[in-house]
Amino acid sequence: ESDTASEISFQFNKHKKTPSIGSHSSDMASVSSVSGSVLSVYSGDFGSVDAQGTVEFALDYDEKNREFQVHVSQCKDLAVVDEKKGRSDPYVKTYLLPDKARMGKRKTSVKKRTVNPIYNEVLRYKIEKMVLLIQKLNLSVWHNDPLGRNSFLGEIEIDLASWDWSNRKLNWYPLKPRSLSAVNGVDHRGVMNLSIKYVPPGSLGKTCPKNPPSGEVHIWVKDVKDLLQLRPSGVDSFVKCYVLPDTSKKSYQKTRVIKRDTNPVFNHTIVYDGFHTEDLKDACVELTVWDHEKLTNHFLGGIRLGLGTGLSYGISVDWMDSTQEEVAFWQEMMSAANEWIEGLLPLRSL
């Protein structure tokens, strides 16, 4: 039923607490360093002020240097955050959507004690024009708080595919409240279609030649739909799999790379043995999707299958954070031994 299959032995050490249980290995650290930058556009918003005022900026693309430039000039009549002192300390932040993690954010300097800040700064992105045209520019204004409790002051979102690139003049734009589409849709990373199965130790009977002496978890990665399109030609994607808390090469498996496709079909099965029934409460299967490039791979999204308790063998861990959908999927597998459980789960930023 699948074109590739891999089987590895995996033994949990429940008594001796190794460093890999309490902390990430270098392999896991590489995942964390990438996914850690994938935050909500509105992360850090602690304010409750209404958006008001305007922002003046201009857009340009430098063909020679292959650089997208956002010239942020100034803002007027921004909301006052600290009413007692009658002040705001505003700055401007930009993202290219939908993949803000890949291109990152840019921001201006902070102008203190003013609702009419003047910046005259250029925010730059090194990006091919064809790739830029499938992005949206999210430009937002924020009040900077010394303790990091920044307040959202307003935003504007521009579809760059329909932008008039002959317009290089500075223009004024009204700042709007945060858009529901941005809040709910920015982090959409696609969905993974997969099946999982647990085979308990000795459950297939003595007459079965494949009766496992220890339990097995089977993971059948079928396909992924609606991946972020990082290039006009699509993405070159593959899936990594770990069984946490082990992030060593013992538990690491991956699919082949599917090129130039935002809806890749992998049809890849992985079997982990050495799984005792009690391990299912403390282990977590992490599946992550990556865009393959020569120099570095880019994180696209992932899922974590487990009970989401925050604990693994009595130790508090940040990766035991499964969503309700992921927990329900894992629980269904635990309660239906020897049966394939099918699921369609949204990828997230982990």
What does this structure look like?
This protein folds into 2 domains: 47-178, Sandwich (Immunoglobulin-like), CATH 2.60.40.150; 190-347, Immunoglobulin-like. The strands form 5 sheets. It has a 5-stranded mixed β-sheet with strand order 1-14-11-10-19, with helices on one face. The chain has a 4-stranded antiparallel β-sheet with strand order 6-3-2-9, with no helix packed on it. The chain is mostly beta strands. A hairpin with a 6-residue loop joins strand 15 and strand 16 (298-305). The longest helix is centred in the C-terminal third of the chain and has 12 residues, at 324-335. Helices cover 11% and strands 37% of the residues.
CATH topology of the largest domain: Immunoglobulin-like
State the major sheet.
5 strands, mixed
Q: In the CATH hierarchy, what is the architecture of the largest domain at level 2?
A: Sandwich
User: How would you name the CATH homologous superfamily of the largest domain?
Assistant: C2 domain
Name the poorly predicted regions.
Answer: 1-7, 13-46, 180-186
Radius of gyration: 24 Å
* Strand order, largest beta sheet: 1-14-11-10-19
The computed structural class is mainly beta
CATH class of the largest domain: Mainly Beta
Q: What series of H and E elements makes up the topology?
A: EHHEEEHEEHEEEHEEEEEEEEEHE
Distance between the termini: 30 Å
Outline the fold blueprint.
Blueprint: E1 4-9, H1 19-22, H2 26-35, E2 54-62, E3 67-76, E4 90-97, H3 100-103, E5 106-107, E6 118-126, H4 129-132, E7 136-143, E8 151-159, E9 171-174, H5 180-185, E10 191-199, E11 216-225, E12 237-244, E13 253-254, E14 265-273, E15 284-291, E16 298-305, E17 311-312, E18 315-316, H6 324-335, E19 341-346
